[in-house]
C-alpha cells in the first residue's frame, strides 16, 4: 500500500529507504522469544517486505534501496542481542538483494549509524551520553541526524552510482573502540622511559 501511495503521489519511485527499527535494552536471559521475534520482524522482515513490494517499480527506474542498519553487530554490544541479530540480518539481506537485483540495475546499500544525538534511542538512556561518546568514539562525539542523512544522500546520488552490496559505517569510528589493556598514561610513561634509555646508548 505504501508503495502504491508513493507512486500515485509522485508518479514513480526511484529511492526506497528502509528505516524502521525496534529496540530496547534487555539482558539475553530476560529477553522473551516474542520480544526477540518482534525486533526481527520490524527490522529484517520489514526491510524484506518493503524491498520486495518496491521491486516491480524500482526495476524500471534503476532504483536505489537504502537499508538503515547499525554498528551493534560489528562487535558484541551489551543488552542488544535482539537488535544486533536483526541488523546483522538486514546487512545480509543488503548483500543478497544487491547480488540478485544488480541485473535490474537496482543498487542496494546499507548505512550503519553509530551513537546519534537527539534520537529516540539516545533519549531512552540516562544522561551523560555525550561524555561517554567522547571516550568510546574516536572522533570524540556522537553523530548528528544531518550527518547520517548526508551519507544517505551520497548513496542515492550519482556520486554513489558504483556502490552496491556494502554497508557504510557512519559511526565516527565507534566500531573500532576497545578498552585498552594497559591505560594510555602508563603506555606513555613506558614510551618516554624507553626514549630516554635509547638516547643514552
TrEMBL record:
Protein's UniProt name: 2,4-dienoyl-CoA reductase [(3E)-enoyl-CoA-producing]
GO cellular component labels: peroxisome
Protein EC: 1.3.1.124
Key words of the record: NADP, Oxidoreductase
Molecular functions per Gene Ontology: 2,4-dienoyl-CoA reductase (NADPH) activity
Organism: Aphanomyces astaci
InterPro entries per the UniProt record, alphabetical: DECR2-like (IPR045017), NAD(P)-bd_dom_sf (IPR036291), SDR_fam (IPR002347)
Enzyme superclass (EC): oxidoreductase
Matches recorded under Pfam families: adh_short_C2
Source lineage: Eukaryota, Sar, Stramenopiles, Oomycota, Saprolegniomycetes
UniProt catalytic activity: a (2E,4E)-dienoyl-CoA + NADPH + H(+) = a 4,5-saturated-(3E)-enoyl-CoA + NADP(+); a (2E,4Z)-dienoyl-CoA + NADPH + H(+) = a 4,5-saturated-(3E)-enoyl-CoA + NADP(+)
GO annotation, biological process: fatty acid catabolic process
